[in-house]
Fold this sequence. Notes:
Order of helices and strands: EEHHEEHEHEHEEH
Radius of gyration: 21 Å
Shape: globular
CATH topology of the largest domain: Leucine Aminopeptidase, subunit E, domain 1
Largest sheet: 6 strands, mixed
Helix content: 40-55%
Mean pLDDT: 84
CATH class of the largest domain: Alpha Beta
Number of helices: 6
Number of domains: 2
Low-confidence stretches: 171-179, 188-193
Structural class: alpha/beta
Distance between the termini: 42 Å
CATH architecture of the largest domain: 3-Layer(aba) Sandwich
Amino acid sequence: TIQEGKIEIEQGDITKQNVDVIIGSSSSENLRQALIKAAGYQVEHVYNQAYEDNPTSLIISTPSGELPCKRIFFIKWKPNKDPEILQQSIIDLIWNVMQNVVSCNYTSIAFPAIGCGKHACSVDIIVKTMIREMKKQMETRKLLCLVKFIIEPNEENVYDEFCKQLFSSDFHASMEFQLPATWQISKGYKIRLIVSKDTDEYKSIFKRFDE
């Protein structure tokens, strides 16, 4: 939970999500076709017309058609094997999506694990950046919304990575407000705290163990 907003990780079918807006990708053939097929002819027609009118558009917004949402956003996103370019592309993607979500007054969003499938991009970079940037957007914009990351059932490694990053960031964020200034949170995915040897905390702990 971030402020009054919430991030959830779920394995399932993104076309079944009962949210305000479902996020797709105009750059992913499989995801785009899956959404259009489930949504029906109206969505296919609107998407094709919008793409024909403006093929460079960052977001193509269509009606929901047969899907249980209010709107579908097809995001223009290009995978890249360069870590820095990949990370920046995810930052831009999240910003663009949330900018449009806010302008439409939507309060629930379903994201696929964009780039974690057949694009062969770094799952670690994508997931870490997605979680971090989504939390940042929700905190800075003070959004009271539900964000769901929907992972395909056969992508256990991707699901595990999302859970790891969400838990890790939540733990570190919450601990930062509670720890004494002399304590540090260890790096990496470890629930461990580092206490400097020259602090009173360390001396008191060491003394107890030495008794």
